[in-house]
Amino acid sequence: MSVVDVQAGCFRNLLSFSFRKKRSEREKNDVPTKSARRPTELPVVQVPEAKLEESERPGLSVKEGELPPYANAGFFCAHSNAQAYADLVKPPAYSSCELGEYFRPEVLETIEDTLEKLNPALRELSLDILHHPEIQWEEKRTHDTLTAFMSSHGFAVTQHYLDLPTAWRAEFTHTSSSNADAKLRVIGVNSEMDALPGIGHACGHNLIAIAGVGVALAIKAALEKHNVPGKVVLLGTPAEEGGGGKINLLDGGAYEEMDACLMCHPSPGPPNYVSIGPSLACQPLEIEFFGHGAHAAWAPWEAQNALDAAFLAYSSVSVLRQQIKPTHRVHGIVSGKDWAPNVIPDYAKMHWIVRAPTWAELVALRERVKACFEAAAHATGCKLTLKAGPGYYDLRQNTPLGEEFAKVVKDFGVNAQFDEGMAASTDFGNVTYALPSLHPCHTIPTKPNGANHTPQFTEAAGTPEAHAKTITVMKGLAATGFRILADGEFTAQVKKAWEEQMIE
Ligand SMILES: [Zn+2]
Ligand SMILES: [Zn+2]
């Protein structure tokens, strides 16, 4: 066998080559053959179980096998999760908004009646979406189901809106003869649709989908019954979980005519609680390291190791995390193809997500993270390519809209607070930068450590209790949306507040 043959062959060929070379020497010296000496099993090493001694800490005892309960408060963007949980167990009194009489109580009655009648159909719709999860940009069935539902309830529907295969638009306009020529105000509502790979509707977007439908239909009923002119536009917004569907819709002008836009999101947390807080700005990054493959034992010096580059990048980011703010997040994964331990990988791919409380902070943090990838490429001699995915802006909740919503849901026993918000991100943040918007996060009953993006949350999103909590939120959003259409003075306040929030 020539040297060239060995290099072109597999690990087995290489072994047989070196083994054959030495056999004659062994035979000469009467040394046992390699196969006779090779143990069939490695000796078992007993590792003693480590015992963690901890002093008793009252109030923080956890049963064996359970994570501490304050892990549930992880969605709140607080400096200390434990403190955040302690604060939330006893929700603070209203501080940021004064609650008074809400706008036109008779309209709220219409909204309540409408949602009560729709309740069984909305429940059916929610379970149908839950049991047929579709990931980002593949929400075909959900698109068809929801557009058929809106059509059958008197909305003008545009399927595959703006050439996005799973986006849609449903609109309803009510004009009254007295002011047929006046410019109508427009309220926007969003229905999310996408699930997560492998774990279904683990972010509860089935509940968001039906919330959008319920809010739009309740506003329609109120406009008709109380003869108030106005337009409701419900957008079916695909690909929230990383695809940035709302950014495509924004770029295509879908939000341009809206005076304000509303949606909601389920989350874990204390019962009957709604968080009206910010979320983190977010930027996905796709990194590729291109190296040169080689035999891992025969000629490792010929290689540029792309897997090493990925591990160096991972380690560098891990070290960087110690020097970033507690409100910042950097997290990622590494993947490759056709890897084998005896071949030095010539390619590695990484997906990272960088998050910070504002887009401006994110841009600064992103540069520091980028330096980690560049350093890894330099150290290993690999080529680096870096692609930035859709950037999600932080969520800027409109204060008057939030106060109006809080007033209404308080009547249903729900405590809505302008709090620290969530340490997650949404493409609705970009909508809040473009126009006055509201995105309350309402709590639904969840199992311990079963927050968003876990299979336990998928289960929670299908319970009758979660459905009931979402119906209450629909009442608050529909009443708030109706006021935008019916009360010009309120809409002016909402717009003024948005302008002020955007120059902060
Ligand atoms: Zn999610
Ligand atoms: Zn979500």
Automatic annotation (TrEMBL):
<protein>
    <recommendedName>
        <fullName>Peptidase M20 dimerisation domain-containing protein</fullName>
    </recommendedName>
</protein>
<dbReference type="Pfam" id="PF07687">
    <property type="entry name" value="M20_dimer"/>
</dbReference>
<dbReference type="InterPro" id="IPR011650">
    <property type="entry name" value="Peptidase_M20_dimer"/>
</dbReference>
<comment type="similarity">
    <text>Belongs to the peptidase M20A family.</text>
</comment>
<dbReference type="InterPro" id="IPR052030">
    <property type="entry name" value="Peptidase_M20/M20A_hydrolases"/>
</dbReference>
<dbReference type="InterPro" id="IPR036264">
    <property type="entry name" value="Bact_exopeptidase_dim_dom"/>
</dbReference>
<dbReference type="Pfam" id="PF01546">
    <property type="entry name" value="Peptidase_M20"/>
</dbReference>
<dbReference type="GO" id="GO:0016805">
    <property type="term" value="F:dipeptidase activity"/>
</dbReference>
<dbReference type="InterPro" id="IPR002933">
    <property type="entry name" value="Peptidase_M20"/>
</dbReference>
<feature type="domain" description="Peptidase M20 dimerisation">
    <location>
        <begin position="286"/>
        <end position="378"/>
    </location>
</feature>
<dbReference type="InterPro" id="IPR017439">
    <property type="entry name" value="Amidohydrolase"/>
</dbReference>
